[in-house]
Input
Amino acid sequence: MRYFYHPVKSIKKSDAKNRIIQSYREGKKSSTVGRYLSVVSFAFDQACEDDIIRKNPFKISAKEYAADDKRGAVALIEKQQISFLTFVKNDPIFCKQYDSYNILLGTGLRISELIDLTVHNLDMQNHIIHITHQLTPARDRTFHVSKPKSQHSVRDIYMSDSVYRSFQRLIEEAKKRKVKIMVDGYDVVFCS
Output
């Protein structure tokens, strides 16, 4: 990225905006331009404090000039999901997490929601997962059951046959534990 080779006093807000626009035209990502802008803006803040300039011309938002270069979350197509789950199932290390990955892919649950599941949440007879609460850590390193952050988080999710079988295995595994993990009277499915 080219820098200005002009006296600090001569740089105007329009110069700063043009520099940001030029950076995007050169193919810079918004995160790169944002870091550049924060460093340069800091330097100009120092010039303001030293009474070299009155205003910082780089007090602008790079987002105003950015093309949206973030793709966001992209769902795996069915072929990719099958390929991923096959890899996990056949890997000597990751195979232990197969059921968790299968449930996440098959339901769209957030990882935190999966970890928070209790046996109470699972209606195995009707193949439904009830998301009704969350486990909240306390300062003393214990957990408590509390309401989700928003009402939109409370919902029911249907279990496919594959997800159902994964839950069956996990519940059987939980029953074999020597110590039951209980939180506020709820039997937790995942122990870690």
